[in-house]
Amino acid sequence: MTSRAFITGVSGLELRAAEREFIRGELPWGLILFKRNVETPDQVSALVEEFRNLVGEADAPVLIDQEGGRVARLGPPHWQVYPPGASFGALYDIEPELGLQAARLSSRLIAADLIDIGITVDCLPLADVPVAGADAVIGNRAYGTEPGKVAAIARAVSDGLEHGGVLPVLKHIPGHGRATADSHFRLPTVDTSREELERTDFAAFQPLSDLPMAMTAHVVFSALDPVQPATTSATIIRQVIRGVIGFQGLLMSDDVSMNALAGSIADRTRAIVNAGCDMVLHCNGKLDEMRDVARETPALTGEALERATRALASRKQPEPLDRQAARVELEALMDRVGTA
Fold this sequence. Notes:
By secondary structure, the chain is α/β, with parallel strands linked by helices. The protein has helices at 17-26, 41-55, 85-94, 96-116, 147-163, 194-199, 201-205, 234-244, 265-275, 287-296, 302-313, 323-339; strands spanning 4-8, 28-33, 62-64, 66-68, 71-72, 121-122, 167-173, 189-190, 213-216, 220-221, 250-255, 279-282. It has twelve helices and twelve strands. The strands form three sheets. The protein has an eight-stranded parallel beta barrel, surrounded by five helices. The longest helix has 21 residues, at 96-116. The mean pLDDT is 96. One of its GO terms (biological process) is carbohydrate metabolic process.
């Protein structure tokens, strides 16, 4: 069966009859989960299994945003709380290798949590480089403000996920750190010169260009395309994401339902596909919007299919992990930040 080039959310803890019919008929490539879809480990596992049965793919990707800090769809009492990205940056400033080790440990533990319940893709790491005056949507999710440091920690995070059998999604390419608005609510415009963007924002993504998947930023970079945000800009995707940064993996949009994008959901979907994104991401679980996305999304073929196949094939078997020892080590490393 041929998947369509979109990832869908669903509305609740279990699939409704209409959602089952939609998934079986439209065959989305993947499923993304949010807090509204999470109650217990057994419940999440059952939801994941039913999705895969409906699309007829035992390894169909199931995604989640489990970063640690304030962006965590899994939490107590069933799942551990993990540090925000900025904590790894703070420890890196004390001793770089300790910061990298903490980042790697945290994401390795996150991967173990996810694999337990059948989730195989985490929308992590971030390589966004925030600046003074930027909107707090990134905030302490970021690893730092220096591109080399951000890239090093992001690499450690992706290594931890991959060693745990979970595929990373690099975000928000080519950079959300300068945005002065939260793209969930309105479209941010960045007026920084191309030269400065290449020196800072884009430079953090370049060392990570080999990662299997990345998610776009709903941000206008006026020096490159004064009208379209990166997600719907063929110029930025071609010249910057595929060109300057050199990313050749599967490129998915950020959520098509976010208010940064203009027009109807159908208009937005067409714009995303036409700009060169391989995959459309729709998150809110509203069935009428899901149908519009499916209607405007092509079958997954050609280079997009090749990149999707290559991404899934890169997933490794989880390496052994002593979870208790890893948690103790991570806690000890984080204590170093508190006492510095």
